[in-house]
Amino acid sequence: MASIEAWFMDDSDKDQRMLHKLNPNEPVSLEELEKLGVFYWKLDADIYETDPALEKIRKDRGYSYSDIITIHKDKLPNYEDKLKMFFEEHLHLDDEIRYILDGRAYFDVRDREDRWIRIAMTKGDLITLPAGIYHRFTLTETNYTQAMRLFVGEPVWKAYNRPAEEFDIRQKYVSALQCAKDKSNR
Question: How many Cα neighbours within 13 Å face the side chain of 158?
Fold first, then answer.
């Protein structure tokens, strides 16, 4: 059974690499993340080059392009600037797909009520964030991760910082959340 650790975040402005759990902690289940359009798989990162499970996901979801990024001060040019950029709240016009091959990191996503949910990512975690969801990324206190970035077709690197309500993809995402909520209330 796949599992992931996620929780509602506190409002502290301390170091973004800290856990930022509420006290008491308020965990968020994989089912709750899926209702936001966030999907997760646990894979064997040691065999990512030949992993049939990864190949099946790529084929089923049309992920035809991939590359690998190492986020560490000795490996990533303009490391500090890139970390600041990754942590700015933003959305993309396409899904964001990341597979952690080594190290640890956090993705933060907004829920329906605009609260932050922190998702802890470790080696072997693959996650998809839907187009239109507000999110951000940061490292943990280890200051290191290596991730595979996957795309449908050619990669698009453009992020749109919040507010970005005017984009069709944001409106479609919010509408889909509302429809799902309406169905669950019936």
Answer: 7
Residue with tokens 């992993």: 51
Q: Give the residue numbers of the binding site for Fe(2+).
A: 90, 92, 96, 135
28, 39, 181, 10: CA torsion to nearest 10: 30
Question: pTM for this one?
Answer: 0.95
Please tell me what DSSP assigns to residue 81: H
As a whole number of Å, the end-to-end CA separation of the chain is 29
Q: So what's the pLDDT on residue 2? A: 61
Binding-site residues: 90, 92, 96, 135
Which helix (DSSP H) or strand (DSSP E) does residue 12 occupy?
Answer: none
CB neighbours of residue 31 within 10 Å: 7
Q: Which residues are annotated as a binding site for Ni(2+)?
A: 90, 92, 96, 135
Round to whole Å and give the CA distance between 164 and 170. 7
pLDDT per position as a tens digit, 53-98: 999 999 999 999 999 999 999 999 999 999 999 999 999 999 999 9
Interacting residues of 129 by C-beta distance below 8 A, sequence separation 6+:
37, 38, 92, 95, 96, 97, 107, 109, 135
